[in-house]
Write a structure and sequence with these properties.
CATH class of the largest domain: Alpha Beta
CATH topology of the largest domain: Phenylalanyl-tRNA Synthetase, Chain B, domain 3
Shape: elongated
Helix content: 25-40%
Largest sheet: 7 strands, mixed
Radius of gyration: 38 Å
CATH superfamily of the largest domain: Phenylalanyl-trna Synthetase, Chain B, domain 3
Oligomer: single chain
Number of domains: 5
Structural class: alpha+beta
CATH architecture of the largest domain: 3-Layer(bba) Sandwich
Number of strands: 35
Strand content: 25-35%
Length: about 700
């Protein structure tokens, strides 16, 4: 922001000797010092002819209010005790209603919160007076004519961009705020002709676009020496919409720069009055009665409460509450003290959209009070807080996997659309980014497994060998899009292990997940076979994983096509677990029991069942039978061979019985074992193997 020290002094009233405010005008040195310590460092300083000084002030993106002389003068006034002079013009209309000369239609109030228009007839466009030319030249602006110069002057003075249209060039003498039509052509004031898109906003007349909203005006409706009637636009726009159009078309203007940083709709009227009054003063004419005004409903001023003690605690300065109120009031924040609670109830002015929280107000107190006046201690007391529960859980998971021989990977989230489609959950669509930026791999991965498969292939190509096979894991995100176009993101734990064969691989993966479940939640996951739902899955080799009755993931074997696609030699088993669901059971709740005082009796049963019968169904039959003295039922192993026949398998399970009060006898256990065998014969068609 280029600022003129002379211009700043027109907005500041200096005190006389003996008064509360400092005497004399603000000097360039004082302005530079005050603004720097207020958080607006000076990039450069230039002496101008006539005794003025130009300051190049660095303004952060959240302080759009200081992209104006009034905003910078407000900061100087608050820091030095001077009085801020805010222009308060009251232009006199001539009595004829503005609706007789023009009309307005705002079709996009969601991105144009407010659009106002006034009409001045009979203006005489010509050169600007010397004071206006010098003021603009002091901040690097070129004088064009008195009407356009006033528009630029108000922007630089108050921070409100405006635009002046030659009313007689507008077809239908109307202004319509609308989205551009696809391929619509627009000739801008910079002499270039642009082809617009449907997501770019324009101000149009009855036939064509005459301004690219919030960015630049059009050549066809510009004010020239032939102009007699002008339409004065003062409006505000959605920052993202303005930023998108300006960047795509590579148009950088002072107006667009300010609109991108929020111009509040409630500041428009004062700027419009100032604009109309100066045009009437410098170009003559008569102002139509009233204002054309269209947009969204007005928003009430924001109220933010600040606890005085909280301010003192954060800053380490014992500032009286009344002094805090004075500092905030100097910044136009209307602060009212609630004495019982020692809290300031602050009404945020429209030009400060960045003040939304208590800590924002505390920062304003610190800034205005002076950072240099806040004491600094030679030592800082630090209390280290323990890690959060989810962080501890992830450490436990990583430690467990490292102990099981896994290596952690960190891979890129982008893959090809073809890969993404293979791992896409049912009912989801591939989520893409702009292919101009990611030409080869524009799709976000829906699963971390394709990234692990890529990593495994790279290790394989490098000739890596590890005892027991390579084991990889990663904490990563999965991304997809639902039918309504909403992005669905998941945080997952993905695992990949080598195996000598499929059965051993599935058992090894189950053992790993059992270890994680015990370490994180103190419980063993439950497994259940089901059909694979993704194109990459083997339909007959997908196992659901659940904990606490909630499905949290799956163990997967990959189809042969997938293994060929990635060039994987041998057998690999993958698993993916919903990380938030897994760590929600952390920490484990240990259950302490006394050691058994009496011995147990164990019986091993080998039953022949159909190949499709799962261990879960066999275990369910045992639990449903409910032997009174059964302490535990566990899986021992499975056998397939000629002895059990084709399509059959022999499952061995171990039943452990115990009476906590005495020693059991075998004849007490025999009926309970017989009941379990009978139930398995009835419910899963099991035959006891001799």
């Amino acid at each position: 922001m280029l600022a003129s020290v002379r211009w700043l002094n027109t907005l500041l009233a200096s005190g006389s000797p003996g008064s509360s405010g400092p005497a004399g005008a603000v000097t360039p040195d004082e302005a530079e010092h005050v603004l720097t310590f207020a958080g607006f460092p000076i990039e450069s300083r230039e002496d101008l002819p006539g005794g003025d000084v130009r300051l190049d002030v660095e303004v952060t993106s959240n302080r759009g209010d200081c992209l104006s002389h009034l905003g910078l003068a407000r900061e100087i006034a608050a820091a030095t005790g001077r009085q801020l002079i805010v222009p308060t013009p009251d232009p006199e209309p001539d009595g004829e209603p503005v609706g007789s000369f023009a009309s307005l239609q705002n079709t996009t109030p969601d991105v144009c919160p407010r659009f106002t228009a006034r009409v001045i007839r009979g203006v005489k466009v010509g050169p600007s007076p010397k004071w206006l030319v010098e003021a603009l030249e002091a901040v690097g602006q070129r004088s064009i004519n008195n009407v356009v110069d006033v528009s630029n002057y108000v922007l630089l003075e108050l921070g409100n961009p405006s635009h002046t249209f030659d009313l007689n060039t507008l077809a239908g003498r109307t202004a319509v705020i609308r989205w551009a039509k696809k391929g619509e052509r627009f000739e801008a004031l910079d002499g270039r002709t642009h082809t617009l898109r449907e997501d770019e906003l324009v101000v149009a007349d009855a036939e064509r676009a005459v301004s690219l909203a919030g960015v630049i005006g059009g050549e066809s409706s510009s004010v020239t020496e032939r102009t007699t009637d002008v339409l004065l636009e003062v409006a505000t726009w959605d920052p993202a919409t303005i930023r998108r159009a300006a960047r795509r078309l590579n148009i950088r203007t002072d107006a667009g720069h300010r609109f991108e940083r929020i111009v509040d709709a409630r500041t428009i009227d004062a700027a419009a009055d100032r604009l109309a009054a100066l045009i009437l003063e410098l170009a003559g004419g008569s102002l139509a009665e009233g204002v054309l005004d269209a947009g969204a409903p007005a928003v009430a001023l924001r109220i933010v409460e600040m606890r005085a003690q909280r301010c003192r605690d954060l800053l380490g300065v014992d500032t009286p509450t009344t002094e805090m109120a004075r500092l905030l009031t100097a910044l136009d924040v209307d602060a009212h003290l609630d004495e019982p609670s020692d809290t300031l109830r602050c009404e945020i002015p429209p030009h400060r959209p960045d003040l939304t929280r208590e800590v924002d107000l505390i920062e304003e107190v610190a800034r205005t009070h002076g950072y240099d006046r806040i004491p600094m201690h030679e030592t800082v007391q630090v209390r280290v807080a323990p890690p959060q529960a989810d962080e501890r859980a992830m450490r436990e998971i990583a430690d467990t996997l490292t102990g099981c021989g896994f290596f952690e990977t960190v891979t890129f989230s982008f893959i090809t659309p073809e890969e993404a489609a293979l791992f896409l959950p049912a009912g989801m669509r591939v989520l893409r980014v702009d292919e101009e930026r990611r030409k080869g791999e524009p799709a976000l991965r829906p699963s971390v497994l394709p990234s692990l498969l890529r990593c495994r292939r790279i290790n394989q190509d490098a000739g890596l060998r590890a005892e027991g096979g390579v084991r990889l894991f990663e904490f990563g995100g999965g991304y997809a899009e639902d039918d309504e176009g909403q992005t669905v993101e998941s945080r997952n734990l993905a695992l990949l292990i080598d195996a000598p064969d499929e059965q051993q691989g599935l058992r090894a993966m189950r053992g790993v997940l059992d270890a994680i479940g015990a370490r994180v939640g103190g419980m063993a996951p439950v497994y259940e076979a089901h059909e694979g739902s993704r194109p990459a899955d083997r339909p007959d080799a997908t196992i659901g994983v659940s904990m606490g009755g909630v499905t949290i993931g799956a163990v997967r074997l990959f189809s042969n096509d997938i293994l060929k696609r990635y060039g994987i030699e041998g057998v690999v088993v993958g698993a993916e677990v919903d990380l938030p669901a897994l760590i929600s059971v952390y920490p484990p709740r240990p259950v302490v029991r006394a050691l058994a005082a009496f011995p147990a009796i164990e019986r091993d049963l080998s039953v022949i069942v159909d190949e499709a019968t799962t261990w879960a169904s066999i275990e369910g039959v045992v639990k449903a039978t409910g032997p009174a003295l059964l302490e535990h039922a566990s899986f021992v192993g499975v056998y397939r061979g000629k002895q059990v026949g084709a399509g059959k398998k022999s499952v061995t399970l171990r039943l452990r019985f115990r009476d906590p009060a005495r020693t059991l006898r075998h004849e007490e256990v025999d009926p309970q074992v017989a009941a379990v065998v009978a139930a398995m014969q009835r419910d899963v068609d099991a035959a006891l193997r001799a």
